[in-house]
Amino acid sequence: MESLAQRFGRVVRDMRVERGLSQVDFGERCGFYQTYLSRIENGRANPSLNAVEVIANALGVTVYQLFDRVRDS
């Protein structure tokens, strides 16, 4: 069974790819290192609420929309 961190990371990766962004480009947009984003996308990092908000903003959605997608995945 997929953990919440894994589901969150998969959704972030899917949304990033849908927007045509590389991890490097997305990292620059978020202000995070690509290695940190890789760990998030692979479910090996637990981002803070502030980081979740930054990620949602960089994806052009609200935190609620992001978590709706995680919930529905």
Secondary-structure map:
Blueprint (H helix, E strand, L loop, with lengths): L3 H15 L4 H8 L3 H8 L7 H11 L3 H10 L1
Helix pairs in contact: 1-5, 2-3
Nutshell version of this structure?
This protein has helices spanning 4-18, 23-30, 34-41, 49-59, 63-72. The chain is an all-alpha fold. The protein has one domain (4-72): 434 Repressor (Amino-terminal Domain).
Architecture overview:
With 73 residues, the protein is mostly helical. The chain has a single domain, classed as 434 Repressor (Amino-terminal Domain), CATH 1.10.260. The protein is 71% helix and 0% strand. It is globular and about 30 Å long. 22% of the residues are buried. The model has no long low-confidence stretch (mean pLDDT 97).
Task: Sum up the structure in keywords.
73 residues, mainly alpha, 434 Repressor (Amino-terminal Domain), 0% strand
